[in-house]
Amino acid sequence: xxxAAGHDEAIGSVxxxxxxxxxxxxxxxxxxxxxxxxxxxxxxxKYEKRSVTxxxxxxSRYGFSLEREGxxxxxxxxKVANFYDEEEVRxxxxxxxxxxxxxxxxxxxxxxxxxxxRAADDATREQKQVGAPVRNVHNDYTEWSGxxxxxxxxxxxxxxxxxxxxFAVVQVWRPINKPVQSSPLAIADARSLSNEDLIATExxxxxxxxxxxxxxxxxxxxxxxxxxxxxxxxxxxxTYDCGKDGRARWTAHAAFDDPMSPPDAPARESIEVRTLxxxxxxxxxxxx
Length: 288
Fold this sequence. Notes:
By secondary structure, the chain is of the alpha+beta class. It has one domain. It has 4 helices and 15 strands. The N terminus and C terminus are likely disordered.
């Protein structure tokens, strides 16, 4: 897969504010409304704006990888004509993403289980019944909810077997119309996250209860973004990996206000797809 490095972007970094959780000792709760209307999310908990530097990932001399930083930007063409067409997304885009995640990870099986469309424009959200960019720094799965998602989605026997081996939650994010010039996505190098920064937050849906991590501020966080992402580019990143051998396990991320956005920048429209990537059992020494 070709990595996306073809843009000549002069801006090396931007200094912005990100919304971090303040650890008060109480477990925050996020409420998501029922389907059939715009996705509305409300939160308990205390948040604060902290100034951070976000580096232009297009200028990195070393590139990025899923196992080291936890994310990578790739060139990825799609045959989808209209991302707001649910049937087209499932019939055309899902197979494209399944192939991409298999290629990027080497997984033996990839299961796509969810996608979310987002629009920064109020009128578009109302018309298309989609969510807004998420501005609180977060990671979508936790030590508990990653395995629980496998149990939720697979038959009990298969889930029990899959959980005996390595698996990961891999997400794919991309613009769906014009290049992203406003509300871009910042993502944190997994190596800069400490376990102490991760605060489990209950996520209540109409039909189930999940859990995500909201993130407390740490000056060691190293933030990256890829300015002017286009429709033929995809950001592939991990939000859970059961491996505890030093590989990337989580990638905190959040939308932010880019001070370099032109005044007439189009409002961001994007899609994120969530997948379970299951890996073949590792062979031990002497096995055939």
